[in-house]
Amino acid sequence: MDDYLSVNRANWDERAPAHAKAQSYGVARYRADPDHLSDVVRFDRELLGDVSGLRGVHLQCHIGTDTLSLHRLGARMSGLDFSAASLAEARSLAASTGADIDYHESDVYSALDVLEPGGYDLVYTGVGALCWLPSIERWADVVAGLLRPGGRLFVRDGHPVLYSLDETREPLTPRFPYFERAEPLVWEEAGTYADADSRFEHTTTHSWNHGLGETVTALLDRGFQLTRLVEHRSAPWEALPGHMVLDDVPVLGGAVPEWRLRDERDRIPLTFTAAAVRP
To answer: What residue stretches are annotated with the Methyltransferase domain (predicted)?
Structure first.
């Protein structure tokens, strides 16, 4: 089973430098504007609330744009990722912007080996993270182990309904498992969603879906109190090419560009936000 780590890591090591150069990640804007925040963090800023002074950790932080954004909102941030190449980009971005962020190389399930157990006020997980983990129960164990009593989890991710759809069919049709299963979905992709011109050597990835009920129940079983669960009609990436349009979504203090269904926008949820507190 652990072979998925080496397979996925090889792919993400290639994605990292491509994403650092991609217009969609906009790394140069963080260096040019000390107040710039990622669209992902801006989208959820009202739901996220005040994070100033909190000791936070961003799991599966990739190249660190959301991590830096949380730092700019006043949190004392750490980042964790299993890709050395991603962390190199994240550290470079933090150093070039004068941000005091410590980064740690580890897969999620080994996070408690490199991070302080019970030492965090906030665990943050961003878009496109949970699908790379085979077990949502093990993820919930890690989150519970990292948070101090009273600490909180905040996650926005792709909705499992979205991940079950086959965008190559018209109309959109469920094809892939909605619920978690032991066997991964195996994908072959020459490039990356962030840069259509990129071509990689390591093109195979393994992923899993996790039903929304499975994710929430995993947290409830560990004593978490769910404080927020919101399903959204938009996503920050073109998750269903050919079926979506880019639109401005109103958020606290302005708007952010997000992708919505071109037709019948109320048909399905595309992403969700969940927040929970460890008593």
So the answer is: 60-151
pLDDT digits (tens, 9 = 90+) for 47-90: 999 999 999 999 999 999 999 999 999 999 999 999 999 999 99
Tell me what pLDDT residue 265 has: 92
At the topology level of CATH, where does 3-25+50-277 sit?
Rossmann fold (3.40.50)
* Pairing of β 254-261 and β 244-251: antiparallel
Instruction: Give the whole-angstrom CA distance, residue 152 versus residue 103.
Output: 20
What local confidence, expressed as pLDDT, does residue 45 receive? 97
Tally helices (H) and strands (E) across the chain: 10, 14
| Per-residue pLDDT, 57 | 99
State phi, psi for 210 to the nearest 5 degrees: -135, 120
Record the tokens describing residue 11, joined without a space. Answer: 């792919």
Where in the chain are the domains?
3-25+50-277
Query: Is residue 98 left, alpha or beta, with left meaning phi > 0 and alpha meaning psi from -120 to 50?
Result: left
Per-residue confidence (pLDDT) for residue 1, from 0 to 100: 52
The low-confidence residues of the chain, meaning pLDDT below 50, are: none
Q: List, for residues 173-198, the tens digit of each pLDDT value.
A: 999 999 999 999 999 987 667 565 66
* Nearest-angstrom CA–CA distance, 139 and 20: 27
**Amino acid type, 243:** H
Sequence-distant contacts of 245-254: CB under 8 A, at least 24 apart: 249/43, 251/42, 251/43, 251/45, 251/46, 252/42, 252/45, 252/46, 253/42, 253/45, 254/42
**The dihedral of CA 41, 52, 58, 232: what is its sign?**
negative
Q: Which helix (H) or strand (E) holds 35?
A: none
